[in-house]
Amino acid sequence: MKLGIIIGATREGRSTDRAATWVAEAAKKSGFDVKMLDLRDYDMPMFNEPASPQYNPDRAPEGAVKQWLEAVGDMDAFIIVTPEYNRSIPGVLKNAIDFIAYEFERKPIGIVAHGSSNGAQAVSHLRGILPGVLAVTVPRTVFLPVARHAFDEDGVLNEELAANPYGPIGALDAMLGDLTAYTTALNTIRQ
Ligand SMILES: Cc1cc2nc3c(=O)[nH]c(=O)nc-3n(C[C@H](O)[C@H](O)[C@H](O)COP(=O)(O)O)c2cc1C
User: Fold this and answer.
1) What pLDDT sits at residue 191?
2) What is the CATH number of the domain that holds 166?
3) Average pLDDT estimate for 13-37
4) Closest CA to 158 of 122, 114, 109, 123
5) Does any ligand 1 atom lie closer than 6 A to the CB of residue 9?
6) For the whole model, what pTM was predicted?
7) For ligand 1, what atom is nearest to the CA of residue 88?
Protein backbone atom coordinates (compact mmCIF):
# COMPACT_ATOMS: atom_id res chain seq x y z
CA MET A 1 0.00 0.00 0.00
CA LYS A 2 1.65 3.17 -1.26
CA LEU A 3 0.98 6.10 1.05
CA GLY A 4 1.77 9.70 0.05
CA ILE A 5 2.26 12.07 2.98
CA ILE A 6 1.53 15.58 1.74
CA ILE A 7 3.31 18.38 3.58
CA GLY A 8 0.77 21.15 3.18
CA ALA A 9 2.87 24.21 4.09
CA THR A 10 5.92 25.64 2.37
CA ARG A 11 6.76 28.87 4.20
CA GLU A 12 10.26 29.53 5.42
CA GLY A 13 10.54 28.35 9.02
CA ARG A 14 7.49 26.10 8.77
CA SER A 15 6.92 23.35 11.35
CA THR A 16 4.45 21.17 9.43
CA ASP A 17 7.38 19.01 8.28
CA ARG A 18 8.01 18.03 11.93
CA ALA A 19 4.50 16.64 12.23
CA ALA A 20 4.90 14.91 8.86
CA THR A 21 8.07 13.16 10.03
CA TRP A 22 6.23 11.85 13.08
CA VAL A 23 3.33 10.66 10.90
CA ALA A 24 5.71 8.94 8.46
CA GLU A 25 7.43 6.94 11.20
CA ALA A 26 4.12 5.63 12.53
CA ALA A 27 2.79 4.89 9.03
CA LYS A 28 5.86 2.81 8.19
CA LYS A 29 5.32 0.78 11.37
CA SER A 30 1.72 0.22 10.24
CA GLY A 31 3.00 -1.39 7.05
CA PHE A 32 2.63 1.45 4.55
CA ASP A 33 5.20 2.10 1.83
CA VAL A 34 5.64 5.81 2.55
CA LYS A 35 6.56 8.58 0.11
CA MET A 36 6.87 12.18 1.28
CA LEU A 37 5.11 14.61 -1.06
CA ASP A 38 6.54 17.93 0.03
CA LEU A 39 4.87 20.83 -1.79
CA ARG A 40 8.23 22.61 -1.68
CA ASP A 41 9.39 20.04 -4.25
CA TYR A 42 6.55 20.95 -6.64
CA ASP A 43 6.92 24.62 -7.41
CA MET A 44 3.63 25.07 -9.25
CA PRO A 45 2.16 28.33 -10.56
CA MET A 46 -1.20 29.54 -9.29
CA PHE A 47 -3.82 27.41 -11.01
CA ASN A 48 -4.45 29.10 -14.37
CA GLU A 49 -5.79 26.44 -16.76
CA PRO A 50 -8.59 27.26 -19.21
CA ALA A 51 -10.93 24.56 -17.87
CA SER A 52 -11.53 22.44 -14.80
CA PRO A 53 -9.01 19.55 -15.00
CA GLN A 54 -11.84 16.98 -14.83
CA TYR A 55 -13.47 18.51 -17.90
CA ASN A 56 -10.35 19.03 -20.01
CA PRO A 57 -9.39 15.87 -21.95
CA ASP A 58 -6.85 17.82 -24.04
CA ARG A 59 -4.89 18.84 -20.98
CA ALA A 60 -1.12 18.40 -21.26
CA PRO A 61 0.49 19.32 -17.93
CA GLU A 62 4.17 20.18 -17.92
CA GLY A 63 6.97 20.76 -15.43
CA ALA A 64 6.17 20.76 -11.72
CA VAL A 65 2.44 20.25 -12.34
CA LYS A 66 3.15 17.11 -14.39
CA GLN A 67 5.51 15.81 -11.70
CA TRP A 68 2.94 16.52 -8.98
CA LEU A 69 0.14 14.74 -10.85
CA GLU A 70 2.34 11.72 -11.61
CA ALA A 71 3.51 11.45 -8.00
CA VAL A 72 -0.04 11.69 -6.67
CA GLY A 73 -1.44 9.33 -9.29
CA ASP A 74 1.01 6.65 -8.24
CA MET A 75 -0.29 6.48 -4.65
CA ASP A 76 -3.00 4.27 -3.12
CA ALA A 77 -3.71 6.52 -0.14
CA PHE A 78 -2.70 9.83 1.43
CA ILE A 79 -2.26 11.64 4.68
CA ILE A 80 -2.44 15.40 4.37
CA VAL A 81 -0.51 17.16 7.10
CA THR A 82 -1.66 20.76 7.26
CA PRO A 83 -1.55 23.79 9.49
CA GLU A 84 -4.53 26.09 9.87
CA TYR A 85 -4.01 29.49 8.23
CA ASN A 86 -6.73 32.11 8.63
CA ARG A 87 -9.41 29.60 9.59
CA SER A 88 -8.65 27.34 6.63
CA ILE A 89 -5.84 25.49 4.86
CA PRO A 90 -2.79 27.22 3.36
CA GLY A 91 -3.32 28.61 -0.14
CA VAL A 92 -0.42 26.53 -1.45
CA LEU A 93 -2.25 23.34 -0.45
CA LYS A 94 -5.55 24.43 -1.99
CA ASN A 95 -3.70 25.37 -5.19
CA ALA A 96 -2.04 21.94 -5.38
CA ILE A 97 -5.47 20.29 -4.94
CA ASP A 98 -6.97 22.49 -7.68
CA PHE A 99 -4.56 20.96 -10.23
CA ILE A 100 -5.84 17.44 -9.55
CA ALA A 101 -8.21 15.84 -12.06
CA TYR A 102 -8.77 12.14 -11.29
CA GLU A 103 -5.53 11.33 -9.42
CA PHE A 104 -7.35 11.27 -6.04
CA GLU A 105 -10.45 9.44 -7.33
CA ARG A 106 -11.72 6.77 -4.92
CA LYS A 107 -8.59 7.01 -2.80
CA PRO A 108 -8.65 7.40 1.00
CA ILE A 109 -7.16 10.43 2.72
CA GLY A 110 -6.41 10.88 6.41
CA ILE A 111 -5.95 14.38 7.80
CA VAL A 112 -3.45 15.53 10.42
CA ALA A 113 -3.90 19.18 11.32
CA HIS A 114 -2.24 21.56 13.72
CA GLY A 115 -2.57 25.13 14.85
CA SER A 116 -3.50 27.42 17.70
CA SER A 117 -6.96 25.82 17.73
CA ASN A 118 -5.59 22.38 16.83
CA GLY A 119 -6.42 22.79 13.16
CA ALA A 120 -10.15 22.24 13.58
CA GLN A 121 -11.23 24.64 10.85
CA ALA A 122 -8.53 23.43 8.44
CA VAL A 123 -9.95 19.91 8.85
CA SER A 124 -13.49 21.09 8.36
CA HIS A 125 -12.55 22.90 5.14
CA LEU A 126 -10.55 19.95 3.78
CA ARG A 127 -13.51 17.64 4.35
CA GLY A 128 -15.53 20.01 2.22
CA ILE A 129 -12.90 20.39 -0.51
CA LEU A 130 -11.73 16.81 -1.08
CA PRO A 131 -14.98 15.37 -2.50
CA GLY A 132 -14.48 17.90 -5.32
CA VAL A 133 -11.50 15.82 -6.46
CA LEU A 134 -13.38 12.56 -5.79
CA ALA A 135 -11.37 11.52 -2.72
CA VAL A 136 -12.70 9.79 0.38
CA THR A 137 -11.67 11.15 3.78
CA VAL A 138 -11.42 8.59 6.57
CA PRO A 139 -13.52 9.33 9.67
CA ARG A 140 -10.77 9.62 12.26
CA THR A 141 -8.51 12.67 12.35
CA VAL A 142 -5.48 13.85 14.30
CA PHE A 143 -5.71 17.33 15.84
CA LEU A 144 -2.43 18.74 17.14
CA PRO A 145 -1.35 21.93 18.83
CA VAL A 146 1.10 24.22 17.00
CA ALA A 147 3.68 21.76 15.63
CA ARG A 148 6.63 23.95 16.63
CA HIS A 149 5.58 23.33 20.26
CA ALA A 150 4.39 19.74 19.89
CA PHE A 151 7.55 18.37 18.23
CA ASP A 152 11.27 18.91 18.30
CA GLU A 153 13.14 19.58 15.04
CA ASP A 154 13.45 15.84 14.39
CA GLY A 155 9.72 15.27 14.64
CA VAL A 156 9.77 13.73 18.13
CA LEU A 157 6.55 14.38 20.04
CA ASN A 158 7.01 16.16 23.38
CA GLU A 159 6.77 14.11 26.56
CA GLU A 160 3.55 15.65 27.84
CA LEU A 161 1.62 14.90 24.65
CA ALA A 162 3.21 11.47 24.33
CA ALA A 163 2.10 10.55 27.87
CA ASN A 164 -1.53 11.61 27.35
CA PRO A 165 -3.62 8.40 27.02
CA TYR A 166 -6.15 10.34 24.94
CA GLY A 167 -3.46 12.20 23.00
CA PRO A 168 -2.04 12.22 19.48
CA ILE A 169 -0.34 8.82 19.53
CA GLY A 170 -3.62 6.98 20.02
CA ALA A 171 -5.38 9.26 17.57
CA LEU A 172 -2.80 8.62 14.86
CA ASP A 173 -2.87 4.90 15.51
CA ALA A 174 -6.67 4.86 15.16
CA MET A 175 -6.51 6.93 11.96
CA LEU A 176 -3.91 4.61 10.45
CA GLY A 177 -6.25 1.73 11.25
CA ASP A 178 -9.00 3.47 9.29
CA LEU A 179 -6.60 4.18 6.46
CA THR A 180 -5.45 0.56 6.22
CA ALA A 181 -9.02 -0.69 6.01
CA TYR A 182 -10.15 1.97 3.53
CA THR A 183 -7.08 1.49 1.34
CA THR A 184 -7.79 -2.22 1.03
CA ALA A 185 -11.47 -1.62 0.32
CA LEU A 186 -10.96 1.20 -2.18
CA ASN A 187 -8.15 -0.61 -4.03
CA THR A 188 -10.73 -3.33 -4.65
CA ILE A 189 -13.33 -1.01 -6.13
CA ARG A 190 -10.78 0.84 -8.29
CA GLN A 191 -9.78 -2.37 -10.07
C1 LIG B 1 -0.66 33.13 8.05
C2 LIG B 1 -1.02 32.36 9.29
C3 LIG B 1 -2.34 32.31 9.70
C4 LIG B 1 -2.70 31.56 10.82
N5 LIG B 1 -4.02 31.46 11.14
C6 LIG B 1 -4.41 30.62 12.11
C7 LIG B 1 -5.78 30.40 12.36
O8 LIG B 1 -6.65 30.98 11.74
N9 LIG B 1 -6.12 29.52 13.34
C10 LIG B 1 -5.17 28.86 14.08
O11 LIG B 1 -5.55 28.06 14.93
N12 LIG B 1 -3.86 29.04 13.86
C13 LIG B 1 -3.45 29.90 12.89
N14 LIG B 1 -2.12 30.09 12.64
C15 LIG B 1 -1.14 29.35 13.45
C16 LIG B 1 -0.63 28.15 12.69
O17 LIG B 1 -1.66 27.22 12.41
C18 LIG B 1 0.45 27.42 13.50
O19 LIG B 1 1.45 28.31 13.91
C20 LIG B 1 1.03 26.30 12.69
O21 LIG B 1 1.82 25.50 13.53
C22 LIG B 1 1.88 26.86 11.54
O23 LIG B 1 2.40 25.82 10.75
P24 LIG B 1 3.74 26.07 9.92
O25 LIG B 1 4.81 26.42 10.95
O26 LIG B 1 4.08 24.82 9.22
O27 LIG B 1 3.47 27.22 9.02
C28 LIG B 1 -1.72 30.87 11.56
C29 LIG B 1 -0.37 30.96 11.16
C30 LIG B 1 -0.03 31.68 10.03
C31 LIG B 1 1.41 31.71 9.58
Assistant:
1) 79
2) 3.40.50.360
3) 98
4) 114
5) yes
6) 0.98
7) 8
